[in-house]
Amino acid sequence: MDIAGLHITHIGDDCVLLEPSEGLDPSDPDTYLLPLLADLQKNNARYLIYDMKKVAIVNPAYLNWLTTMSRMLGISGIQMIVVSLRPHTVFALSRSLTGKPPFLCALDVDSARQRARDAAQELDTDNPE
Q1: What pLDDT, in 10s, does the model give residues 75-106?
Q2: What DSSP line would sit under the chain, residue for residue?
């Protein structure tokens, strides 16, 4: 599925990969959030992996976009894992955030998928049938 500015791919392990493109306008989250959430819920996603490798700048509007999306997903029972953060992006986020980030972080998509598999396995062992 594609929403203007977002490329969405269902990659298994209850994970959905979101790759933002240059068309994304983070200052207008209402355009994206409801269609994105509807797609994730329809496909029973438990994790949204947000790939930042093509994101050049993280300004206050982009940080607000990430924070709002993460909170909305969390309320819906979907965890957001941000991956492929460039060093300058990490630095910008560290200076802009107050407190712990509202999303998980992983090195890359494979690491995020492994984190999702580990969490699912932990749930299975905590709740034996």
Answers
A1: 999 999 999 998 888 888 888 888 888 899 99
A2: -EETTEEEEEEETTEEEEEE-TT--TT-THHHHHHHHHHHHHTT-SEEEEE-TT-----HHHHHHHHHHHHHHHHTT-EEEEE---HHHHHHHHHH--SS-SSEEESSHHHHHHHHHHHHHHHHHHS--
